[in-house]
Amino acid sequence: MLTWMDHYLIDEEIKNPEKVRKKIDSGKLTGIYLITLSSNQDNMLEIYAADLLKMKAQRDLCQPIVGIAKNRDNAIEMIVRILEESLQTEYAADLVNYLKNR
Fold it and tell me: What is the Cα–Cα distance from 94 to 25, expressed in whole angstroms?
């Protein structure tokens, strides 16, 4: 089962986010990119192609999803936006808490 952060970000190019989320949850969606918390302590966020979630092992390893994007470039732009926004809050040094409390 995939874990989604409350108030996860949705790329404005995604037309029907509820339908996209259901397809991602079922492992039947390709061409979409996920922004997740990082499993590596040296990183904060990671970008995954939703295609990888077709494999059960990848689904089991997937960290909480904080955003979905139509393509990789949009995912990168979303991460930049997340970081810029977090720097303007009291959570500047704590990205995970920023994402939980936004």
Answer: 28
Would residue 27 be called left, alpha or beta, if left means φ above 0 and alpha means ψ between -120 and 50 degrees?
Answer: left
Radius of gyration of the chain (CA): 13
pTM of the predicted model as reported, rounded to 2 decimal places? 0.88
Kindly give the residue spans of alpha helices, DSSP state H, lying in the chain. 17-26, 56-61, 72-87, 95-101
Give the three-state DSSP class for 37. strand
How far from 66 is each of 15, 77, 84, CA to CA, in Å? 18, 14, 15
Distance CA 35, CA 48 (A): 6
Backbone angles phi, psi at 9, to 5 degrees: -80, 145
Residues 91, 102: Cα–Cα separation, whole Å = 10
What pLDDT score does 71 carry?
Answer: 97
Phi, psi of 35 (to 5 degrees): -105, 125
pLDDT digits (tens, 9 = 90+) for 24-59: 998 888 899 999 999 888 888 999 999 999 888 998
